[in-house]
Structure formats: C-alpha cells, structure tokens
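Reopening this ticket.

The earlier resolution said the output was attached, but the attachment link was broken on my side. Pasting everything inline this time so it's all in one place.
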Amino acid sequence: ARSETGLGGFCYPGMIRLPSGRFQFTMLDMVTRMHAICMSESDDLYAWTKPRPIVRWGHSPWIKHLRPGDHSRDGSFPTGVFYRSPWPLLLRDGRILVVFARRKPPAGIGGIVSEDDGKSWSDEFIIRSDASGPDLGYPAATELDDGRIFTVYYFMVEDGNPHGGSRFIAGSFFRI
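Inline output:
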C-alpha cells in the first residue's frame, strides 16, 4: 500500500483471493486513524488500486449502545482510532465478510459484508458490544459447515481486577 500523505501508517493487513482471481487486501489506515481500508489488485500482485474506506460513516448501529459516560468530556462523540485489525473472510456463497474491533465506546467486535466482490459494503453490524474499554481486537473468523461464522478475538471486561478489568481470548458464533 502506498501512503499518499507520505506518512505511511497502514497496518493489520489481511488478504483474500476472490473467485475472479483478484486479490483483496484489508488494513487499518493509521494516518487518518479512522477507517478499515480495502485494496484490490490484479493477478500479478503488483498493481494495487488506491486504498478506499469500506466502513460507511453515518450508518452506525453502535450509537444506540452508548452507555452513560461513553462520550468525551464536552459531550461530543470521541475521536481517534475507532477500528482495529480488520479480518477478511471469503464465504462459501461468494460474499465477503470483514470482522473488526471497535475501540471507542461502545467498544466491541463488529463486521461488514459485501455481496459484489467489495464494490459496495453493508452497514456495520454488531457481534459484541460489551467491552469495558479499548484494549481489544485482533479477530480471526471462519465459516463452519452449518453456515455459522465463528470469530475469536482478544477482549476485556470490567470485573474488579486492576487496570480496567480482565483481558482474555473470547469467541462468538453468528449468522449473516
């Protein structure tokens, strides 16, 4: 990936190969610090398209899960790194699923889906929204024989332990 700003900052790469033979690359853009990014390339693995956001602003299901105290001190929605570690998965029916961590309140694990090889993406959906803080992420996912998706991730919950609660590896089953 090429950083147009010259600052660099793409990280948490994930790649799938589409049925057409093209490769699609998801990553976090740490320069703008806001987007999961999608890139596609030709069969030669050299000519990449320009990175583009795949999370659609203004279509978030997370807002209704905000809890008291989740806003910043001035009452505005927090800024900074919202998303972390996108993980792409090509499903058997040809759809593309990208699961990711959300590190701003309400913190949790979410996803988006494309039904057209990544040309357009669904609104976000929530897999889990009960994290007690931003120390979470790094999901991986697989499609099970019965069509369910299983995703595993690093998570945290407030349970009285110091430093904001316990951290652990968790998992969720879901269908899309």
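Reporter confirms the inline version is readable. The chain has no helices and eleven strands. The CA atoms of residues 132 and 157 lie 5 Å apart.
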